[in-house]
Amino acid sequence: MTDALKRLWDSTADFQKRFRLDEQFNLPAQMRCVSEELAELNKEVYGWYFTEDGLEAENFSINATEEAADVIVTVLGVLMGMHMSYADIEDALERIAAKNDAKTHDTHAINENGKVARKEVAS
Hints:
Elements: H1 2-18, H2 27-50, H3 54-81, H4 86-102, E1 108-110, E2 116-118
Antiparallel strand pairs: 1-2
Helix pairs in contact: 1-3, 2-3
């Protein structure tokens, strides 16, 4: 995964330079792009979820995977605009992985919204 992520980071950096986005960071525009990419991912995921046709479901799966990668690329562009480095991203990924690894059935449960959240401590 790290090699693919590094490849995507480098590709996104080249893309940013090619279109001079690194010289003119526009946060509102970039966040609109993130929202658009998330909407496209949402469409493909729900398409997969609600289809009963195996071939169509496979197409939705492929498209969802590519849309997820587009979301990652767009978010990487935002982070680059914020002057984050690849090392910053790696560090954050490690912290989040460790945080996820530490969650157990003793400390967390699935809440009413379907999210794994810290259990409420009775006082």
